[in-house]
Design brief:
Order of helices and strands: HEHEHEEEEE
Largest sheet: 7 strands, antiparallel
Radius of gyration: 17 Å
Shape: globular
Oligomer: single chain
Strand content: over 45%
Number of helices: 3
Distance between the termini: 30 Å
């Protein structure tokens, strides 16, 4: 699931740039690293090795053409489509700053949700974000619990797309 979140969320942060800095088309490498996990369930704490994050990184390469960098669907062409039960609730990419939120509801599991918040900076050829992805839902005893996965993401333009 974390790789899926990387592929779903990281491309959003560079789309629709209408400020003075525009994202350059080309081959981009997106990388994400876990920085920690938190749980609201105090009876079942997160194991320390997960709570601290990890040194493992996940990377994916995507090729964005001139038409891709300005449209949502264009940015998603090399990734999975945005699930139909998800919506972008905040998408501010301007003046070198990123403020993005994505919310998903699971219609097959009442009360289950996922919220991803990303904040960071960008240039024409790089970006850095910190993200928090919170999954929440009901427990069998009727309580609500949540887990938050924190990560740092980077991206850099690494060259031209190969034909």
């Amino acid at each position: 699931m974390p790789r899926q979140l990387l592929v779903i969320a990281l491309p959003f942060v560079v789309m629709g740039c209408s400020s003075k800095v525009e994202v350059q088309p080309g081959l981009w490498r997106l990388t994400e690293q876990s920085t920690g996990v938190e749980s609201s369930d105090k009876d079942n704490p997160i194991p320390p090795e997960l709570a601290a994050g990890s040194n493992s990184k996940q990377s994916v390469a995507v090729c964005w053409g001139p038409k891709d960098t300005g449209s949502f669907r264009g940015m998603m062409k090399d990734a999975s489509e945005l699930p139909k039960d998800c919506k972008i609730t905040k998408d501010v990419v301007a003046d070198g700053k990123i403020d993005f939120e994505l919310e998903c509801k699971d219609p097959s599991a009442e009360g289950m949700s996922l919220v991803r918040k990303m904040h960071g900076t960008y240039t024409a050829t790089t970006f850095e974000v910190e993200s928090a992805t919170t999954m929440s839902g009901p427990t069998p005893d009727g309580k609500t619990t949540s887990m938050t996965f924190k990560a740092k993401g980077t991206a850099e333009r690494v060259g031209e797309c190969k034909a």
